[in-house]
């Protein structure tokens, strides 16, 4: 099902701006006369590959809201190149096979200029090759190292969120210095979890610590107690990252397993509790444990103005819940990536002088030329550094501690903490 | 290597799984035994039980245990009523023909799943357990509620057995199972028996799901695993044999628990599937089934 997000009618200002731009183009000799039609003020159509159903549905719900909010602001500010912007949302069921079909449908049937938004790494890996075949820019929000590893292609970029390799590398020193050096990792047994396994293990080793056990759990698992005896007794820190609809069950069963007995320190990725209320019964044991957060769910005392404005725009309160339903918890740590990606698309298209699908290659080249991204309303999560060669952005990460059921930030990494040598140079590849 | 007290934990987890599985599979077995209908929508009736339990629990004010008790009583009844409706509207009209009913129940399963997606949404939603008492062993803690699930399952299965063997309705069902035509000749309303059996089978799956929701949450895709495992159990036990189903559920549940702990859950699934294949090759009627 296709849901067309009906954009506000272009304001008089944006129409005038569009006319002015059109007029300017007409004066360019040789080009204006021929492409006068292309220089219209017709909307720019962006495709959003959405996990509306399937195991990624909790993310999908908030990715759609975040994108709608960003779109509203973008159009209020005059759209892209003075043209209004439309986003076409298409559900992929969090399924790689359907993901590739969605890329095709958004490009060929809906006529979108580019596609952005998918999160789950198996879906991204399954869909990206189709985007390259169709030669359509594909901007993912998936955190996976598959972009910067060189596994994907020149049409696929990840400008809105730092990848797992960088995230874990930047936090490993804090974990080994503050929580313990003998770590047991619990992670989902697919691409995203494997990135965690490979790079956190490596990063802990570099810090003189050791990952003493890996507990891989199939991503569709619904019962977890049976995995916990694999956690060795000498474990000092449990590192957990879990995804999908069963995350609450996972955390509850972890709490039950240790009960009131002694337990190791616990460091988790907030993925294990995204869209879940920290106050849910059975989660009391998380008090005093630590979490990675891409973006802090609870409004922090030192929050910036742009952070507050962003939070209001996406309809999230100070506790990370929807302003209209306190039980509806946002996927706040991740969803900023949609917001920021949309504004990067705007900047990329404007830098490329984007007119229509014929300029897709120019758009990718303009994105590759990006470097520093300043903090602000367009980038409320913080400043970032984009690497055009690896198509990957690098940003700050947060470590929060659960205090009184709230996530309070105790550490923020620098961008440099998460840098690693380039594994690929996409700019050297052909389109 | 993991050892000692964890064998106890493995057995406890295995028992919980066996209890829920037995409850789910016994419904599937009953429907096949009496009606000769392979109900592919069985897993979705299970899911429906969980989803309805969430709606009921939301609607009931007061403490968590009260909401849960109401859900436990009401949700399986609604599932059973829907199943009776499906029997009347679809299966009866197909004359209970085996091939046609398989295809029909596949269609039914999609309708139920997409219906849940439309009305319940794509998210997993928890129901609070009726109590939060925890058993604290020296080595690990264990949810008291899970133990209660096992007790409840045993009680329900006992009630089903009594119903089938000691009540008049059970007698009529068994008579229909043995010979539909003769039963009809004796004045038994076979259509009504079928509707009742189909409703009861689905209701049992729904009941199992309500018991499971406080542990696992309700989700529109949760019907896949119970369906697969129920088929495994029913094939091993022998289609139509309630006793075989119970024994097979215990074997599969416990072996899954132990193998998952000491090796891996994937290996447990592989072995269970292999076991089914072997049973189908060497004893197609199942371990306790009668040769057709």
Question: Which helices and strands occur, and which strands form pairs?
Answer:
The complex is a heterodimer of chains A (431) and B (292).
Chain A (H helix, E strand, L loop, with lengths): L1 E3 L7 H16 L4 H4 L8 E7 L6 H20 L8 E7 L4 H14 L4 E3 L4 H14 L3 E2 L16 E2 L6 H15 L3 E7 L2 H16 L3 E8 L19 E4 L6 H12 L6 E5 L20 E4 L11 H10 L6 E2 L2 E5 L2 H21 L7 H9 L3 E2 L10 E4 L4 E4 L2 E6 L2 E7 L19
Helix pairs in contact in A: 3-10, 4-5, 6-7, 10-11
Chain B lengths: L4 H31 L6 H18 L4 H28 L6 H23 L13 E3 L4 E3 H23 L1 H11 L1 H6 L4 H27 L7 H14 L4 H21 L2 H18 L10
Antiparallel strand pairs in B: 1-2
Helix pairs in contact in B: 1-5, 1-8, 1-9, 1-10, 2-3, 2-4, 2-8, 2-9, 3-8, 5-6, 5-8, 6-8, 9-10, 9-11, 10-11
Secondary-structure-derived class of chain A:
alpha/beta
Strand order of the largest sheet of chain A: 8-7-9-10-11-17-18
Rounded to an integer in angstroms, the radius of gyration calculated over CA atoms of chain A is 22 Å
Report the average pLDDT across residues of chain B: 89
Short characterization:
Chain A is α/β, with parallel strands linked by helices and 431 residues long.
Question: Can you describe what's shown?
Answer:
The complex is a heterodimer of chains A (431) and B (292). With 431 residues, chain A is an alpha/beta fold. Chain A has a seven-stranded mixed β-sheet with strand order 8-7-9-10-11-17-18, covered by helices on one side. Chain A has a six-stranded mixed β-sheet with strand order 1-3-2-4-5-6, sandwiched between helices. Chain A is built from eleven helices and 18 strands. In chain A, strand 9 (237-240), helix 8 (247-258) and strand 10 form a beta-alpha-beta unit. Mean pLDDT of chain A is 89; it is low at 1-9 and 22-38. In chain A, helix 3 (57-76) crosses helix 10 (332-352), helix 4 (96-109) packs parallel to helix 5 (121-134) and helix 10 packs across helix 11. The longest helix of chain A is centred in the last third of the chain and has 21 residues, at 332-352. Chain A has helices at 12-27, 32-35, 57-76, 96-109, 121-134, 164-178, 191-206, 247-258, 305-314, 332-352, 360-368; strands spanning 2-4, 44-50, 85-91, 114-116, 138-139, 156-157, 182-188, 210-217, 237-240, 265-269, 290-293, 321-322, 325-329, 372-373, 384-387, 392-395, 398-403, 406-412. Chain A folds into two domains: 2-162 and 334-395, Response regulator (Rossmann fold), CATH 3.40.50; 164-293 and 397-418, Rossmann fold. In chain A, 35% of the residues lie in helices and 19% in strands. Chain B is mainly α and 292 residues long. Chain B has a domain at 21-222. Chain B is 75% helix and 2% strand. Chain B has helices spanning 5-35, 42-59, 64-91, 98-120, 144-166, 168-178, 180-185, 190-216, 224-237, 242-262, 265-282, and strands at residues 134-136, 141-143. In chain B, strands 1-2 form a two-stranded antiparallel sheet. In chain B, strand 1 (134-136) and strand 2 (141-143) form a beta hairpin. In chain B, helix 1 (5-35) runs parallel beside helix 5, helix 1 (5-35) packs antiparallel against helix 8 (190-216) and helix 1 (5-35) packs antiparallel against helix 10 (242-262). The model of chain B has no long low-confidence stretch (mean pLDDT 89).
């Amino acid at each position: 099902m296709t849901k067309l997000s009906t954009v506000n009618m272009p304001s008089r200002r944006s129409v005038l701006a569009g006319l002015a731009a059109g007029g300017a183009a007409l004066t360019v000799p040789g080009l204006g006369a021929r492409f006068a039609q292309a220089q219209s003020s017709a909307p720019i159509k962006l495709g959003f590959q959405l996990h509306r159903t399937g195991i990624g549905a909790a993310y999908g719900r908030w990715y759609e809201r975040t994108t709608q909010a960003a779109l509203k602001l973008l159009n209020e500010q005059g759209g892209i190149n003075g043209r209004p912007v439309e986003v076409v949302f298409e559900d992929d069921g969090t399924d790689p096979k359907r993901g590739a079909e969605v890329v095709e449908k958004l490009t060929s049937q809906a006529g979108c200029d580019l596609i952005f938004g998918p999160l789950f790494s198996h879906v991204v890996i399954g869909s990206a090759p189709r985007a390259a075949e169709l030669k359509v820019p594909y901007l993912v929000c998936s955190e996976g190292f598959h972009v910067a590893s060189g596994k994907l292609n020149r049409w696929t970029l990840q400008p809105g969120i730092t990848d797992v390799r960088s995230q874990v590398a930047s936090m490993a020193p804090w974990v080994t210095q503050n929580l313990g050096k003998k770590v047991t990792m619990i992670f989902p047994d697919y691409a995203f979890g494997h990135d965690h396994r490979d790079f956190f293990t490596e990063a802990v080793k570099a810090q003189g610590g050791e990952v003493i056990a890996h507990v891989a759990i199939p991503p569709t698992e619904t019962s977890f107690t049976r995995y916990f005896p694999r956690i060795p007794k000498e474990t000092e820190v449990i590192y957990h990252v879990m995804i999908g609809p069963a995350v609450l069950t996972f955390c509850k069963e972890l709490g039950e397993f240790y009960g009131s007995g002694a337990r190791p320190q616990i460091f988790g990725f907030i993925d294990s509790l995204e869209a879940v209320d920290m106050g849910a019964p059975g989660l009391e044991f998380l008090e005093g444990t630590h979490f990675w957060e891409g973006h802090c769910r609870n409004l922090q005392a030192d929050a910036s103005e742009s952070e507050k404005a962003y939070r209001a725009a996406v309809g999230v309160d100070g506790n990370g819940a929807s302003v209209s339903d306190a039980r509806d918890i946002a996927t706040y740590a991740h969803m900023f990536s949609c917001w920021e990606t949309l504004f990067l698309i705007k900047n990329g298209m404007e830098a490329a002088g984007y007119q229509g699908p014929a300029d897709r290659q120019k758009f990718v080249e303009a994105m590759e030329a990006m470097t520093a991204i300043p903090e602000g309303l367009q980038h409320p999560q913080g400043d970032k550094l984009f690497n055009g060669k690896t198509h990957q952005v690098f940003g700050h990460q947060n470590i929060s501690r659960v205090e009184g059921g709230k996530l309070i930030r105790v550490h923020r990494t620098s961008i440099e903490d998460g840098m690693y040598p380039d594994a690929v140079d996409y700019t050297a590849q052909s389109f | 290597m993991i050892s000692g007290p964890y064998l106890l934990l493995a057995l406890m987890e295995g028992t919980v799984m066996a209890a829920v599985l037995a409850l789910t599979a016994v419904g599937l077995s009953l429907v096949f035994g009496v009606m000769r209908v392979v109900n592919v929508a069985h897993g979705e009736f299970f899911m429906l039980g969980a989803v309805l339990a969430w709606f009921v629990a939301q609607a009931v004010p007061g403490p968590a245990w009260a909401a849960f008790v109401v859900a436990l009583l009401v949700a399986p009844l609604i599932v059973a009523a829907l199943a009776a409706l499906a029997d009347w509207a679809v299966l009866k009209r197909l004359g209970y023909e085996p091939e046609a009913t398989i295809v029909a129940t596949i269609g039914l399963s999609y309708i139920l799943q997409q219906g849940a997606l439309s009305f319940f949404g794509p998210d997993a939603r928890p129901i609070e357990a009726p109590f939060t008492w925890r058993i604290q062993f020296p080595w690990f803690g264990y949810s008291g509620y899970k133990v209660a699930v096992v007790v409840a399952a045993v009680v329900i299965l006992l009630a089903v057995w009594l119903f089938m063997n000691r009540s008049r309705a059970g007698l009529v069902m068994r008579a229909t199972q043995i010979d539909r035509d003769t039963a009809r000749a004796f004045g038994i309303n076979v259509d009504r028996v079928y509707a009742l059996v189909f409703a009861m089978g689905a209701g049992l799956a729904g009941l199992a799901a309500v018991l499971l929701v406080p542990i696992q949450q309700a989700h529109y895709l949760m019907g896949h695993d119970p369906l697969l495992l129920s088929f495994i159990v029913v094939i091993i036990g022998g289609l139509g044999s309630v006793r075989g189903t119970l024994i097979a559920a215990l074997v599969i549940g416990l072996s899954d628990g132990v193998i998952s702990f000491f090796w891996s859950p994937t290996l447990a699934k592989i072995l269970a599937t292999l076991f089914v294949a072997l049973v189908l090759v060497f004893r197609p009627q199942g371990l306790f089934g009668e040769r057709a």
